Amino acid sequence: MTHPADTALPVSEAVALKVQYQTRQRNWRGQLSTTTVRAVDGIDLAIRSGEAVALVGESGCGKSTLGRALLRLEHVSEGAVHFAGSDLTGLGEPMLRPLRRNMQMVFQDPFSSLNPRMRIGETLAEPLLVHGLASKAEARARVAEILEIVGLDPAVATRHPHAFSGGQRQRIAIARAVIARPKFVVADEPISALDISVQAQILDLFEDLKERFALTYLFISHDLAVVRHIADRVAVMYLGRIVEEGSPESVFDNPLHPYTQALLAAVPSPDPVRERSRPAATLQGEPPSPAATISGCRFRGRCAHAMPICETSDPALATGGDGKQAVACFLHHEQSF
Ligand SMILES: Nc1ncnc2c1ncn2[C@@H]1O[C@H](COP(=O)(O)OP(=O)(O)OP(=O)(O)O)[C@@H](O)[C@H]1O
Ligand SMILES: [Mg+2]
User: Fold this and answer.
1) Distance 60 CA to ligand 2 centre (A)
2) Is the C-beta atom of 290 inside 6 A of ligand 1?
3) In a 3-state reduction of DSSP, which class is residue 111?
């Protein structure tokens, strides 16, 4: 399958990316020791212009760290991060600042992402004024325009965040992210803190904005049903790595990686017949700590299909199945045997 975005240049790209955190803790003797948490542990991902890539995986697998690193809101330990052809890896904040209008983030919690002391109009105008993209009068007009686009009355510009519901606040946060017409937006679980009743509306807004502004997204979500609805491509992450990647149809209808299969088996089906035949939780236990050193495949301790090779070799992400998706699993890497 070729997608129109296949030929486009990557807007955002991770190249052999690693992000590690050093954490210090005291042991029972009171001695300090340092542990390395490998939150992102060797990821190659290219997000092309106009594409919505969904990133899924269990809590703690490194999704937010990857999203932040792509925007250089996080340090890079190894590898590289590129944005629209520029290497961002070694850039400090002064060099990143002019690029920031083109790379925006929408956070999960709309209650903490807006400054409670600023009027909505000031919050929304800020990116335009900070980057010198508009005069005050132009900014006012752009604020009214974007409020209408995200489904709010332009008159709300004079009010403060406390006057709004969670869904309305998320509309405002999204308006702030897109008002300066960024090329790339990372949306980190943008609907999971919202009431079920407004989640679909916010998803529709994302789809509308993608068309309207030709936006490129990384959409982080633990809800696979949502991902199917919104993504052009899905990347499944496990313990700091992408273990499967492909179109939503290929990944969801023909999952190759045992981890993807287990994630999908855990999703309740709306169809009662399928729901009755759904395997009981196949994913047992917790993922290992990202501070642990694991030989071979990082999923093997939870995998029902683990083979001897999985103990000694670390499978790379390579084309599997009928060539439509990439998978990091020896069950699908014939050439490895
Ligand atoms: N600033 C930090 N210092 C130390 N460890 C961190 C830091 N930020 C994240 N981590 C650790 O890195 C790992 C990945 O965290 P991250 O927040 O990226 O996961 P996530 O997939 O977004 O999880 P969730 O679904 O819960 O949001 C976790 O083990 C986390 O505890
Ligand atoms: Mg997260």
Assistant:
1) 7
2) yes
3) coil
